[in-house]
Design goal:
The chain is α+β, with helices and mostly antiparallel strands. The protein has a single domain (4-113), classed as Fructose-1,6-Bisphosphatase, Chain A, domain 1, CATH 3.30.540. Helices cover 41% and strands 25% of the residues. It has helices spanning 4-27, 43-59, 91-96; strands at 32-34, 40-42, 64-67, 81-89, 102-109, 112-113. The chain has a four-stranded mixed beta sheet. A hairpin with a 2-residue loop joins strand 5 and strand 6. Helix 1 packs antiparallel against helix 2. The longest helix is centred in the first third of the chain and has 24 residues, at 4-27. The protein is globular, with a radius of gyration of 14 Å.
């Protein structure tokens, strides 16, 4: 099976998130909050997460999404297709303006990355 539609969706989602993140980066400073595990999170993380979820859900509404920035509702456990997302990997580097951060969007089908 080919996953060309899924790849196009992943690229579209990552680019949309990248645009959101770039807007925040251009502003120069961003408030940093701490998650329960004491790791940093910014509004750029949260907004990029929303954009990615919107793109994926528009294309594949039956699929589950597991994201670092969204509480896990465990719906993914009953689904064969799960998108795995880190909307802003490298938040510390983003905040520190090192340019060493990325958007990650992946799909697993029946537990296997495709």
């Amino acid at each position: 099976m080919t996953y060309s539609s899924e790849l196009e969706t992943a690229i579209r989602a990552a680019r949309a998130a990248g645009s959101v993140i770039a807007d925040y980066y251009a502003r120069g400073s961003v408030q940093v909050d701490l998650k329960a595990d004491a790791s940093p999170v910014t509004q750029a993380d949260r907004d990029a997460d929303v954009v990615i979820a919107e793109v994926i859900r528009a294309a594949f509404p039956a699929d589950a999404i597991l994201s670092e920035e969204t509480p896990d509702d465990h719906a993914r456990l009953s689904r064969s297709r799960v998108w795995i997302v880190d909307p802003l990997d490298g938040t510390r580097d983003f905040v520190g303006r090192t340019d060493d951060f990325a958007v990650h969007v992946a799909l697993a089908v029946d537990g296997v990355p495709v």
